[in-house]
Amino acid sequence: MPLDPATVAHRWFEEAWNQGSERAIDELSADNVIGHGLGEAGNDVVGRDHFRVFWRNLRTALPDLHVTVEDTITQGEKVQSASSSKPPISAKVWACLRAMRA
């Protein structure tokens, strides 16, 4: 039985980000996952392997990152989540992370 989108969103942040489970990327994202604005110069990252580069960079830069899902809105198979993080991630940090390469 497939998971509902809100459950996937909660598991994504808890497992991939808070617990640092790289396996969660494979389990909870599509092969052609798109990370909008997460690549170099604000470009999209497309595919698990490219997303994994961003994920590793962020986990390395902020090893104590903890994300809390504050709310989710679902419509069919789509989900939007509102989240907060500790430490907060500034625009400057996002720009540096996008510029990093594995």
What labels describe this entry?
globular; Nuclear Transport Factor 2, Chain: A; alpha+beta; two-stranded antiparallel ribbon; two-stranded antiparallel sheet; single chain; 102 residues
Can you tell me the overall shape?
Answer: globular
CATH topology: Nuclear Transport Factor 2, Chain: A
Most strands sheet: 2 strands, antiparallel
Mean pLDDT: 86
**Number of helical stretches of at least 4 residues:** 4
Number of domains: 1
How many strands? Answer: 4
Describe, in plain words, how this protein is organized in 3D.
The structure is a single chain. This protein has helices spanning 5-18, 22-28, 48-61, 91-99; strands at residues 34-35, 45-46, 66-75, 78-86. A two-stranded antiparallel sheet has the order 1-2. Helix 1 (5-18) runs antiparallel to helix 2. It has a single domain (5-99), classed as Roll (Nuclear Transport Factor 2, Chain: A), CATH 3.10.450.50. 7% of the residues are buried. It is built from 4 helices and 4 strands; from the N terminus they run ααββαββα. It is of the alpha+beta class and 102 residues long.
Q: Short description, anyone?
A:
This protein has 102 residues and is α+β, with helices and mostly antiparallel strands.
Question: Topology of this protein?
Answer:
Blueprint: H1 5-18, H2 22-28, E1 34-35, E2 45-46, H3 48-61, E3 66-75, E4 78-86, H4 91-99
Antiparallel strand pairs: 1-2, 3-4
Helix pairs in contact: 1-2
